[in-house]
Write a structure and sequence with these properties.
With 480 residues, the chain is an alpha/beta fold. The strands form six sheets. A six-stranded parallel β-sheet has the order 2-1-3-4-5-6, sandwiched between helices. Strands 17-18-19-21-20 form a five-stranded mixed β-barrel. Strands 7-10-13 form a three-stranded parallel β-sheet, with helices on both faces. Helix 9 packs parallel to helix 10 and helix 13 runs parallel beside helix 15. Helix content is 34%, strand content 21%. The protein has 15 helices and 21 strands. 5'-deoxyadenosine binds next to strand 15. 5'-deoxyadenosine (5AD) binds next to strand 15.
Length: 480
């Protein structure tokens, strides 16, 4: 879910997908044709790191730049504007961005401008320009509408910073430019920011206060995606379950469960997923929406972070071990075939070996289909950095991380064995990586299933696949 990996170059955005960049519902194809034909057109290049929200934001940025007459390129060396959409969640993510900036400096076209967007821009603000003289613009996650001004300033030699965090900005009226897409799955941002103040987390400081987007613009964007042939949408937010929007015209309130249903009703052929949930906010209504709608996927990402109640309290997660286990029980009770995944942090401040074992046992208890696990990385300015000592040795943090992965591997293998003999509806994503004689796709539970090609079956189709083999990470089967 997070991409801190320098070898993954981030997503390179491609504006040649033909997607219009107008406010929702408005067609301005003539302008796009004019843009495409212009030789003098400036080019931008963008790399994204971190969470899906950042990748989604890059599509907003692409839309804004394309309105200004920019076209995209996948070749950094030929671009006039190089942007990197950054992540601050762990130290490593920030380190990777600084490495990329050195590479840009060495290889960029003469006179090309460099801009840093996203969480690192917000965290370091002006300091970034002092630390990284190679950067011309620093733009926080709520300030992308100001990019054209900042670019004009930078062209005049004036370095610019806009890290204003808004209480309202949701970019609701900007239709993202779907980029580097498979044309089957896409994201819609439904809310921004986070009010949760988990003590380890920098996000509330970099993405500001929680605010929900107009429900009707979300539905309109989903409809637009269906019209373009998309089959799957993931509703995105730092904490989607606390989505809450009030219609200013009649005061009617829309909850996350209601929004899920509104999007699901756009088309029975559009699969709906969401990410990410805070366990404290996921209500029975959300579970009923999943149970009662075939196209709302039976998959919940439910970050636990730790299985020990004392550590959860230090993390300010607002639930304890027993409460979380009760939530897991409730999910399996309402949706017996639901898959649950999680996030885990090992080696948080003062964590003992016994407390770490509680995390191992909660992995076994919850029967996770997937985990995203990290060792604790202290982030300046967070509550944990202020209040607690980062006292667990790196090698211990790493050892605990590998133990979590080991237990998870065993659990996931056993969970997947139960799928053998079952038939799942699979949305075909394309040719499998390992063999061009095989197709790959996901079931509702978000598990990848590989199966031999069958005549007439293509990417974007729904097919029924009977599982015949299962490993920790993949299911294999035959198309019925
Ligand atoms: N150190 C390690 N992992 C972290 N995460 C968030 N902050 C930190 C940190 N300081 C993890 C959490 C979160 C996921 C997105 O990243 O598990 O759910
Ligand atoms: Fe960070 Fe907690 Fe908000 Fe998630 S819920 S973004 S971990 S503060």
């Amino acid at each position: 879910m997070y991409n801190d990996n320098p070898t993954l170059e981030g997503v390179k955005l491609d504006l040649d997908t033909g997607r219009h960049n107008t406010p929702l519902g408005e067609e301005r194809q003539g302008e796009i044709l004019e843009m495409v034909n212009s030789d003098a057109q400036k080019k931008f290049y963008i790399e994204s790191y971190g969470c899906a929200m950042n990748f989604s934001d890059s599509e907003i940025v692409a839309s804004i730049l394309s309105s200004e007459g920019y076209s995209s390129t996948k070749v950094m060396e030929e671009s006039d504007l190089i942007l990197v959409n950054t992540c601050s969640i762990r130290e490593k993510a920030e380190y990777n961005v600084r490495q990329r900036l050195r590479i840009f400096e060495k290889n960029k076209k003469k006179g090309a401008l460099v801009g840093v967007l996203g969480c690192m821009a917000e965290r370091l603000k002006k300091k970034f320009l002092e630390e990284e003289r190679l950067v011309d613009m620093v733009v926080g996650p709520d300030a992308y509408r100001d990019l054209p001004n900042l670019i004009s300033g930078a062209e005049e030699g004036e370095k610019g910073v806009n890290v204003f965090l808004s209480k309202e900005e949701t970019y609701a009226d900007i239709a993202p430019m779907r980029l580097d897409t498979n044309g089957i799955s896409g994201f819609i941002s439904i809310m921004r920011g986070c009010d949760n103040m988990c003590s380890f987390c920098v996000v509330p400081f970099t993405r500001g206060r929680e605010r929900s987007r107009n429900a009707f613009t979300v539905v309109a964007e989903a409809r637009d995606m269906v019209d373009q042939g998309y089959k799957e949408v993931t509703l995105l937010g730092q904490n989607v379950d606390s989505y809450k929007w009030e219609n200013p015209e009649n005061g009617e309130k829309v909850s996350f469960a209601q929004l899920l249903v509104m999007v699901a009703e756009v088309s029975p052929l559009l699969r709906v997923r969401f990410s990410t949930s805070h366990p404290k906010d996921i209500t029975d209504d959300v579970l009923y929406a999943i149970r009662d709608h075939h196209n709302i996927c039976n998959y919940i990402h439910l970050p636990v972070q730790s299985g020990n109640s004392r550590i959860l309290d230090l993390m300010n997660r607002t639930y304890d071990r027993e409460w979380y286990m009760g939530k897991v029980d409730r999910i399996y009770e309402v949706i017996p075939d639901c898959a649950i995944s999680t996030d885990i942090i090992t080696g948080f401040c003062t964590e003992t070996e016994e407390e770490h074992k509680d995390t191992l046992s909660i992995v076994e208890y919850s029967n996770y289909s997937m985990i995203y696990s990290f060792f604790y990385s202290e982030r300046p300015g967070t509550l944990a950095a202020k209040k607690y000592e980062d006292d667990i040795l790196l090698e211990i943090k790493k050892k605990r991380l590998s133990e979590v992965i080991e237990v998870y591997s065993k659990v996931a293998f056993e969970v997947n064995q139960k799928d053998i003999g079952q038939t799942f509806e699979v949305l075909v994503e394309g040719i499998s990586k390992k063999s061009d004689q095989e197709l790959k796709g996901r079931n509702s539970q978000n598990k990848m299933i590989i199966f031999p090609k069958k005549g007439g079956v293509a990417a974007g189709d729904y097919v029924n696949v009977k599982v015949t083999e299962a490993s920790r990470a993949t299911l294999r089967g035959i198309c019925l």
